[in-house]
Design brief:
The protein is 13% helix and 27% strand. By secondary structure, the protein is α+β, with helices and mostly antiparallel strands. It has a domain of 102 residues. Strands 1-2-3-4-8 form a five-stranded antiparallel β-sheet, with no helix packed on it. A three-stranded antiparallel β-sheet has the order 5-6-7.
């Protein structure tokens, strides 16, 4: 499924772009975001500062909404399908399977909203370019929140 964005309205200050023309980095209310021109999704440019278990990932997203990150209150964990749209076929110069426009100071394992069962959730591994199920209580991954751009 491809999410189309019919809006051409832009907000915020344009920041110099790294990476491909598919992604545009913006600063909105002093928060850095990346807009995916292909899917119309808006992502946090930097992930959570720490890896965390799945329940804490949900708390992190709630915190972003409470603070109005980048002026919005509809941030969420990405679906597996949305997260996989960030996965590149080959590694970048930094050795990660994600566009370098995303701030990747830490090695990236990203939680998604997709659950396998009560104990497992899907995550995407940008170190090696794959996704798999992971234990939600003992595994720690980073959070890249996303929102559908209106």
């Amino acid at each position: 499924m491809r999410v189309e964005n019919s809006s051409t309205k832009t907000q915020g200050k344009i920041k110099k772009i790294r990476g491909t023309n598919r992604f545009v980095a913006r600063i909105l209310r002093r928060d850095e975001v990346v807009i995916d021109r292909r899917t119309g999704l808006m992502w946090q440019q930097s992930s959570s500062t720490q890896a965390m278990a799945y329940p804490m990932a949900m708390t992190w997203v709630h915190y972003l909404n409470k603070c109005g990150f980048a002026g919005f209150t509809d941030w969420r964990l990405p679906t597996l399908e949305e997260a996989l749209t960030l996965l590149q076929d080959s590694p970048s110069s930094a050795g990660l399977y994600i566009d370098p426009i995303f701030n990747a100071k830490q090695r990236l394992w990203m939680w998604t909203s997709e659950r396998g069962n009560a104990d497992l959730a899907w995550y995407v591994n940008f170190n090696y370019g794959y996704s798999q199920l992971n234990c939600i209580k003992s595994s720690h991954n980073y959070v890249f929140a996303v929102r559908s751009r209106a």
